[in-house]
Design goal:
The chain is of the alpha/beta class. It folds into two domains: 95 residues, NadA-like (Rossmann fold, 3-Layer(aba) Sandwich), CATH 3.40.50; 47 residues, no CATH class. It has seven helices and four strands. It has a four-stranded parallel sheet, covered by helices on one side. Helix 3 links the parallel strand 3 and strand 4.
Length: 144
């Protein structure tokens, strides 16, 4: 059982591995097990299947379909993120979010690291929507 740490305590207590998205993917690849119950947003299951072909991943909603992290397999907040919404925010300055200045400094550092990484790889990526074809583009790049 692979579990994100924001799952309810009773779910975390049952886990074989508790960790970040990257840690969960690495565990799926490295562990001998062939079937995993995964308690995190189900969007990560595709990446797990790509990283560990031949292994079986079962999503585990931890509790109902509510708008809290107790239903992380179908997280309504994660589903709200998308290019169309991002474009709206950038073009129309909608949905302003205020961030503590110290957290803002850390966020800028993360963005700079991503941009530096892309520059070092000389990445020129235009997504086609075909994740299988784009898998090599993102090889070696783990989720946040």
């Amino acid at each position: 059982m692979l579990v994100h740490p924001e799952s309810p305590a009773n779910v975390v207590a049952l886990a074989d591995v508790v960790g970040s998205t990257t840690q969960l993917i690495n565990a799926a690849v490295e562990m001998d097990a062939t079937t995993f119950i995964v308690a995190t947003d189900n969007g990560i299951l595709h990446k797990m299947r790509m990283a560990a072909p031949g292994k079986h991943f079962i999503e585990a909603p931890t509790a109902g379909n509510s708008a809290t992290c107790k239903s992380c397999a179908h997280c309504p907040w994660m589903a709200m993120n998308g290019l169309r919404n991002l474009a709206d925010v950038l073009e129309n300055m909608n949905n302003e979010v205020f961030v503590d200045p110290e957290i803002g400094k850390q966020a800028v550092r993360s963005i700079d690291r991503m941009l530096d990484f892309a520059a070092a790889k000389k990445a020129k990526a235009l997504p086609t929507g075909d994740l299988a074809k784009e898998a090599t583009l993102f090889s070696g790049v783990g989720p946040a």
